[in-house]
Amino acid sequence: MKLAFAMLGCPSWTLERIADEARRMGYDGVEWRDVSGEQIGADEPVERRMAVRRLFESQGVAIAAVMGYTAFAGDDPESRRQAVKGRRFVASKGPA
To answer: What is the pLDDT of residues 43-57, one digit of tens each?
Structure first.
């Protein structure tokens, strides 16, 4: 069995600390908290997303899941588009 923890539990930690602590404590992965303006969000430039992916890969820590605060069923098409964009950003190698 592989184990991961959620970044929700460490909102004041930097991404560098999260990757390091996950490795140090023997976790296989983390669940990213997708909140723009905090640790990482869907609006991050592609270069930043890729740098963060490399950071976690360099520590041998997988991105197990992405936790977001989204509404897929609303009436506003733009809100739904942003929700989908947020879900794609982690795996993206280019703009979402």
So the answer is: 677 788 788 889 999
* Cβ-based neighbours of 70, under 8 Å, separated by 6 or more: 82, 83, 86, 87
| CA proximity to 90, closest of 12, 9, 55, 2 | 55
pLDDT of 25 reads: 95
pLDDT band at 39 (very low <50, low <70, confident <90, very high): low
Question: What is the identity of the amino acid at 23?
Answer: R
What percentage of the chain's residues is helix, strand, coil (to nearest 5)?
Answer: 40, 20, 45
Closest of 57, 59, 52, 55 to residue 90, by C-alpha: 52
